[in-house]
Amino acid sequence: MFDGRDFEAAERRVDDWQAGIEARAAQTRDLSARLTRLLATARSDDNLVEVTVGATGDLVALTLDERIRQRPAADTAREIMATLRQARAALVTAVAAATDETVGTDSATGRAIIASYTGRLGDPDA
């Protein structure tokens, strides 16, 4: 009914299953660590505005060239917002790359991470 070979095969399957879980957990921890360190920077076409966003997409640095003073404030505001969108799109691209390198973009975890960033920050391919 149940011989030693069946038991050994079952043990191997359990060991393989456990090893797979441990590997996925390590990959997920690696991805989490990478994501918390991500920064993305974008520069306006005229090089007057530079924006850096952190891992959550929040603005962490804004640099304005002195020549910006020669422009109307409304133009400057529009340029800052456009450059912020570019930086956030670059962040989503960086998230996708880090996800692909760790858990894979085709895994359930990978798809969820990318969907979360895309949903909050926008699709970089749009």
Order of helices and strands: HEEEHH
CATH class: Alpha Beta
Q: How many β-strands, per DSSP? A: 3
CA(first)-CA(last) distance: 60 Å
What summary fits the major beta sheet? 3 strands, antiparallel
Strand content: 5-15%
CATH structural fold name: Ybab, Chain: A
Number of helices: 3
Structural class: mainly alpha
Strand order of the largest sheet: 1-2-3
State the shape.
rod-shaped
Low-confidence stretches: none
Q: Can you give the mean pLDDT?
A: 90
Calculate Rg over CA atoms. Answer: 22 Å
Q: What is the level-2 CATH architecture name? A: 2-Layer Sandwich
Q: How many structurally independent domains? A: 1
Q: What is the assigned CATH homologous superfamily? A: Nucleoid-associated protein YbaB-like domain
Helix-residue proportion: 55-70%
What does this protein look like?
This protein has 126 residues and is mostly helical. It has one domain: Nucleoid-associated protein YbaB-like domain (Ybab, Chain: A). It contains three helices and three strands, in the order αβββαα. The chain has helices spanning 4-37, 73-102, 108-121, and strands at residues 40-43, 49-53, 59-64. Strands 1-2-3 form a three-stranded antiparallel beta sheet. Strand 1 and strand 2 form a beta hairpin. Helix 1 runs antiparallel to helix 2 (73-102) and helix 2 (73-102) packs antiparallel against helix 3. The protein is rod-shaped, with a radius of gyration of 22 Å. One of its GO terms (molecular function) is DNA binding. InterPro entries: YbaB-like_sf, YbaB/EbfC.
